[in-house]
Amino acid sequence: MDSDTELAPAVRSILEAARARSGGEGVVDVDARSLPDALAAAEADGRVPVIAEVKPTSPTAAGTRADDPVELAQAMVAGGAAAISVLTEPTHFDGSPEALTRVREAVDVPVLRKDFVLEEDGMDVVEADLLLLIARFVDDLEGLVAAARERGFQPLVEVHDRAELEWAIDAGAEIVGVNNRDLARLKVELETFESVAPEVPDDVTLIAESGISSPADVRRMREAGADALLVGSAIMDHGTGDSDVTENTRRLTRAEPTAGDST
Ligand SMILES: O=C(O)c1ccccc1NCC(=O)[C@H](O)[C@H](O)COP(=O)(O)O
Questions:
Q1: Is the ipTM of this complex over 0.90?
Q2: Of 58, 64, 76, best ligand 1 pocket probe by most atoms within 8 Å of the beta carbon
Q3: If 0-12 CB within 10 Å is exposed, 13-18 middle and 19+ buried, where does residue 16 land?
Q4: Is 114 assigned a catalytic role?
């Protein structure tokens, strides 16, 4: 794991808070909904596979969107989302494990737990279909991938560069997210995905994460090899706080590869 001193202050603070939170009681046992199946179903239906994120706020968000997480998730599914991501981090993203549980009960697509899980006991806080593991923040990635699978989770291993991709593949990751947001500087560059994607083995489910805000961005990430896109801010629209989440999602799930369109 990188030294904390190399990270943006907000990310250092997120990691400190994650270390201070207690893990779950007992060991969860999940009967997970398959992400690859959900992505294939979206493709078959003519939708771009989008994992839409319930993200009330974040250190870089323009504001907070306090709508009910279930209503947000249902609106995202109505807009064609293939899966839902729910932030469960409480202190910097206003998320909660309870919100994830309620969302998972209310929708029938796979639900990703988006949090900063650093140790095995942090997995046992709540059931989800997918669990995020951020390669740069964990010491024993292979052990955590195995521990997540033992509980029934599909681990989504997040990387930011080619070295981290190699760790992820060596750890046995089958679902990899390339985060366009550099968690050291909090800068977002879509080139990140384009530089890492060519190195990803064909049998890995590849997700482009962060900074995707327009149909043109969707097409750009798809052309670079994304099987799915993880989108939070552009759908939540923290700035106005009241735009139509279904329409925001539909705009991305219906992005067609039309040459020359720059909307
Ligand atoms: O989103 C942030 O501000 C953030 C800050 C510090 C650490 C992580 C952060 N985001 C986590 C994510 O990976 C995103 O929520 C996710 O990829 C969606 O990104 P976006 O579509 O850009 O909201």
A1: yes
A2: 58
A3: exposed
A4: yes
